[in-house]
Amino acid sequence: MPLSFSILKIPNFRLLVMARMFCQMALQAxxxxxxxQIYSLTKSEFLxxxxxxxxxxxxxxxxxxxxxxxxxxxxxxxxxxxxxxLTLNLAGLxxxxxxxxxxxxxxxxxxxxxxxFISGIARSFMLPAYFSITPQIIxxxxxxxxxxxxxxxxxIAVMTGPVLAGLLYGSMxxxxxxxxPVTFMALGFSCVISINNIxxxxxxxxxxxxFKNIVEGWKFIITHRILLTVLAVDMFAVLFGGxxxxxxxxxxxxxxxxxxxxGLLRTAPAFGAILAAIFFAIxxxxxxxxxxxxxxxxxxxxxxxGFGLSTSFALxxxxxxxxxxxxxxxxxxxxxxxxxLTPDAMRGRVSSISTMFxxxxxxxxxxxxxxxxxxxxxxxxxxxxxIMTLCVAAATYALTPKLRKITFDENTxxxxxxxx
Length: 420
Description:
The protein is mainly alpha-helical. Helix content is 80%, strand content 1%.
């Protein structure tokens, strides 16, 4: 099977991937700092979960029209505005959370939640824009390789951002820590504005109201069952199975490590993910059966159960790393299928709906984790989530006998016309 380094010879693709990597480094570092600051001030698992909900609600609401905006405008411009907004937001958090201004603990917590809220809005526009820029830069045959390289960049960010933030926070305090995400986001912005001379595909013609165009995107997802199934499985699996939001509590209560240990725990999934991402970047998948995705979801659930039962820092790191590996295989399959099965004129809307599913699984999943931890206890809540992830995979396998037999590849074509 040929190596797929050739796609990195495309300057605009390199810049786009670097932009995503730097932006994700910034957001990952921000998550560690916000989580540790809030937990150190409140010792509340529920507030850790509330961080996810605070980011999810504005992102989900904005996602109803963000994809439509991307489809009728220039994705690169939308992406640039999002990154600039995130840079300003992080600069504000540096001033407030970095103790440049004397605030009470109550006021600081409010400011941190406001910053998370703003981040949620920007992210809802950012992902559809990125999804729509990619096909303007690469050819259809390179979708799988592009997805893998893009995910590699994300995993590098997940692997480095939290560790650096945790080390800086633990050794030099919150001021030095907050400088890190601002710097990363500024580097991402410089990459975005350097992308030029990309081809444009036809914009949708505005023959009907924005509301009807948005509904058209939802109809497209609903009538193409494979897309709906892929998005729904991932949403429910991570909604119950994700344990990332509870890592500050595990670091403090169960494993007895400080912010440095928290940074390593946040990074652990990326150790496994980067191996899978690089492998599939070099040797891209050629086929994308639904059963492969379901097996990775089930394996992810097993890893979460193992993490919940572990009281060893090294073993916890191992389970989290394995979860990242299986999740990455899932991401490569899911992202490639979206690229293959989505018409150009609907990429923004389909991606914005996908963003709603992703945010629902990650951020609302964080709120679910915090609520479950408050009701059931920290460890039982994580074990329960892993069991529920296994149930999601098993139920999908049982309910989709026809879809299980379909194998998609880069040449798969579907009806490119949106449903009436």
